[in-house]
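Write out a record, focusing on structure:
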Amino acid sequence: MPPTRLTAVSDLPADPLVLWSAQGMRPGVRAWRDGDAVVVACPDLSRRHRLAVHGTGGRLLGLVRHALAEVGPEYRPLGDADAVTEVVAAFPEIELLDRFWWMDTSDRTGFRGGASWLGADAVPEVRALLDTEYPGSYARPGGTGIRRWAGVRDEHGALVAAAADAWSAPEVGFLAGVVTAPAARGRGHAAAVCGLVVDTLVARTGRAALMVDSWNDAARTLYTKLGLTARPIAAAAHRSFVDQPLD
């Protein structure tokens, strides 16, 4: 029996990563279910074509095979670490890229700092801060899915910290592009911008989420203090697209 095609967010499991990947089932998103297994293919999400995987075992692997045949090998599996590990083991052409932490919360942080939402005139400052301190950020001013930036300015008016509301879905808001100038670290500025973005996203969508590199203990500690909880996830890609440059 072929897998069931899903067409509405209400058909999806109540998994924040899956709901985020579905992006409100916007045009171009496709999803399938087989029993408890679900796969969601979303184009141009966080600067990649993503294939969110949910479940384990043969049903999940069959869905992945079906989805990739329909959407193409450039879609990258993303999901719980165990599920992605199963996919990598079953598909020799797919390799593990990295392990991350998915972190989310449905509660406001309650943190009150000196952060505020930035206007369009601050875009060059955000870009310059990222270019200097976080050139690898997927969130960039003007990029697809970037809604707006929050920031903190020092006593001289210089932008010293920023974070983006980026690739948010109607059910799950998303935080990305967190950056702080070295001279301003240790003063609570990162907590301030993250607190503002998280609280705004929770108020708007009911949940806020982000992803953290597995090695970044300092960031995970900060987000834990702000009330986000972590789960291990992983990403993989077809070997032909591992070194694909960002759009």
